[in-house]
Amino acid sequence: MPGELAGASVLVIGAGGFIGGRLTERLVVECGARVRALVRAPMSAASVARFPVDIRIGDIANPPAVMAAARGCSHIFNCAKGTGPNAAKRRTVDVDAVRSVIEAARRASAMVVHVSTMAVYDRPFDGDFDETTRPAPRGDPYTDGKLDGERLAVELGARWAVPVVVVQPGVVYGPGAGVYGVDIIEELTNGGVVLVDGGRGICNAVYIDDLVSGLLLAAQRRDVAGERFLLSGPEYPTWRDFFESFERLLGTCRTVSLSRAEAHALWRRSRRRAWLAPVLWQALREDRALRRQLLATREGRLLRRLARWTLPKSLQLRLRQDRDLEVSHGRESPPVPLRPWVIDYVARRARARTDKARTLLGYAPAFTLEHGMQVTGQWARWVGLIPEPE
């Protein structure tokens, strides 16, 4: 797979993140590329600092920093992703900063591989979808930003003769994953997790190395500039399959099945300002460090009880009857409320077709969910997220 990347000068924007970090590692070890990593803070470079990488501290939202980092590079991977609760700041990274990336590529005569997401599509409730599917309805800041960002990248690439390829992964998991890794383990450890409609929705999971393989393939195909490619795994696991894989790693059972109507009711109940517990529970969910610190205390147990007391009566009865909430230490925990757009998103049974990537890029995902979770479990035990088996 090294191809034209062997010995090439490559810039990875967002190298301190989950996807960018693994991409950087494989560019160095597998491809023999000369990698320059643009990260926002020195601590962000911890995962790639062990490799012979030229680390540059700078923000993608700072055009001079991007221009300087891209100088002399033949390929640019934009793995940056807006994070945090401020939608305007996230959009600065996901959309506004894209102009600087493409301008930097134009000056360096570089190719750009832009990482987006399959969430930009208006997926059907059931059936297949591909790159011809209409875009997602406007209104959600995350999907709006990712869609506008990839559109701007392609538009500017065509205008300035910069080869731009957009890659749209599904649910990316594996060693080092945050949202679909550490967060899930912590939620299953500290509280219940909602499976909408029994978790029958398709999650379109893709193991990190399959995604990175797709990125490396895309970087070597300037002839497909302007194209978008969906990347998913070799099979179509459901959300129940996905979460049960994590439960097996933990040796626990903390998922609870709710209908979409019940999940929406749980969310509405959690947002009522008259109650303190839902606000605290939401803060715990959004701030991992705070969650770990507070739930480790005696008062943390009380928070769980308070959160459970605020659930609608019908859901309290359902939780008491649901054996899935019985955990190994004999205590029940309330499920974490899901945002409305997440509820609708995970309920869908749409399957991502990767025919285009297979045909034009030679993409061939190799990691089944079972295989990927085996490796993920080894990593989680190594870093101490889950205990070693006795």
Characteristic key phrases:
390 residues, alpha/beta, Rossmann fold, seven-stranded parallel β-sheet, 14 strands, 15% strand
Description:
The protein is α/β, with parallel strands linked by helices and about 400 residues long. The chain folds into two domains: about 5-175 and about 205-235 and about 350-380, Rossmann fold (3-Layer(aba) Sandwich); about 240-345, no CATH class. Helices cover about 45% and strands about 15% of the residues. The chain is built from 16 helices and 14 strands. It has helices at about 20-30, 65-70, 85-95, 100-110, 140-160, 180-190, 210-220, 240-250, 260-270, 275-285, 290-295, 300-310, 315-320, 340-345, 355-360, 370-380; strands at about 10-15, 35-40, 55, 75-80, 110-115, 125-130, 165-170, 170-175, 190-195, 205, 230, 255-260, 335, 350. The strands form four sheets. A seven-stranded parallel beta sheet has the order 3-2-1-4-5-7-11, sandwiched between helices. It has a three-stranded parallel beta sheet with strand order 12-9-13. A two-stranded parallel ribbon has the order 6-14. Strand 1, helix 1 and strand 2 form a beta-alpha-beta unit. Helix 8 runs parallel beside helix 16. The chain starts with 8 loop residues before the first strand and ends in an 8-residue tail after the last helix.
